[in-house]
Amino acid sequence: MKSSAEVPAPGSPEPAPASGPLVDVRDLSVVFRKRRTLAAPRIVRAVNDISFHIDQGETFGLVGESGSGKSTTGRALLKLVPAAAGSVTVAGHDVTRLRGKALRTARRSMQMVFQDPYSSLDPSSTVAASIAEPLIVHEKLSGRAARERVHELIEMVGLRASYADRYPYEFSGGQRQRLAIARAIALNPGFVVCDEAVSALDVSTQNQVINLLERLRAEFGLTYLFIAHDLAIVRHISHRVGVMYLGRIVETGPAERVYTAPAHPYTRALLSAIPDPRRKSERIVLEGDLPDPARPPVGCPFQTRCGHVMDICRQRVPEPTVVEGGGEVSCHLQTSGPTLAGAPLSALPKGPGPAA
């Protein structure tokens, strides 16, 4: 079997099979409450009333700055953190309502690849033991059968079966992430959350791991939620993209449409940060940091950093608007002031402000 390192550098992903949603998220909210001794509890709405879906065999990219709620969303989809409101339906089962044995059974078909492959593998166990654990617990495989399956999985991710008896510290970061992927697909899941799965790797290794994920998706019909802050990587692997800001999804749509014709000022600013010597326009620098999620601004969450802010932005949260070319955007520019009505931001007349 050829290593994924021999696969050409990634481009646009192959089209996902035409089928209905495997994952359907409706009005999902996640709230964290931190108790304090002398003050009122600090309440943080990390995810705020978001909705999206992922079709069978599709890769949905979720992007945004650190602290935007991306990783919390991924964990909520697998019920690793509880939802305060809303529903998450995976393969027809509302994960938010599952308990005990039913949840444990459902998790066989939902797996996660974490950002740090070293901490997600037991440093005191061989990689064979780590990968075999779900096979023994869920499939009740014997030691010999589990070992044969482990060898098959290790080769499937482009490594040698003889590596099975090594410990995690004996591998590079890219090799450890391949092993983490091998464990994630051990139970033949239908849905995999990749939480910053390549952000800790160098550029060449990122390409190899992305190629591996794409090959596995094509071979086994996997469905991915791919979480990242690097928009260039997300463009290569994703069929559709969602952009998060301060716990809300502000724009969704086909990857090419979002990247070539962004409809939200935040999306446009993120895209301007991608290094591109061919770009003629200047980078859009957002002033300030993300607002405190425990005290979000009234109205549009992006109003404190937007170069197009209007009075209505300080009063109401914008409603989703259908975008030309597919997807939705939540921005008052689409419905008030210079009404874009689903057109990209490039349709705005030139004027002052960092997003002009």
TrEMBL record:
Gene3D superfamilies cross-referenced by the UniProt entry: P-loop containing nucleotide triphosphate hydrolases
Domain ABC transporter: 25-271
Transmembrane residue ranges: none
Sections of the chain in a coiled coil: none
CDD domains: ABC_NikE_OppD_transporters
Region (Disordered): 1-20
Record's keyword terms, sorted: ATP-binding, Nucleotide-binding, Transport
InterPro entries: AAA+_ATPase (IPR003593), ABC_transp_ATP-bind (IPR050319), ABC_transporter-like_ATP-bd (IPR003439), ABC_transporter-like_CS (IPR017871), Oligopep_ABC_C (IPR013563), P-loop_NTPase (IPR027417)
Gene Ontology biological process terms, A to Z: peptide transport; transmembrane transport
MF term (GO), any: ATP binding
Domain of life: Bacteria
Alphabetical list of PANTHER family matching this protein: D,D-DIPEPTIDE TRANSPORT ATP-BINDING PROTEIN DDPF-RELATED, TRANSPORT ATP-BINDING PROTEIN
Protein family: Belongs to the ABC transporter superfamily.
Protein name listed in UniProt: ATP-binding cassette domain-containing protein
Native organism: Actinomadura litoris
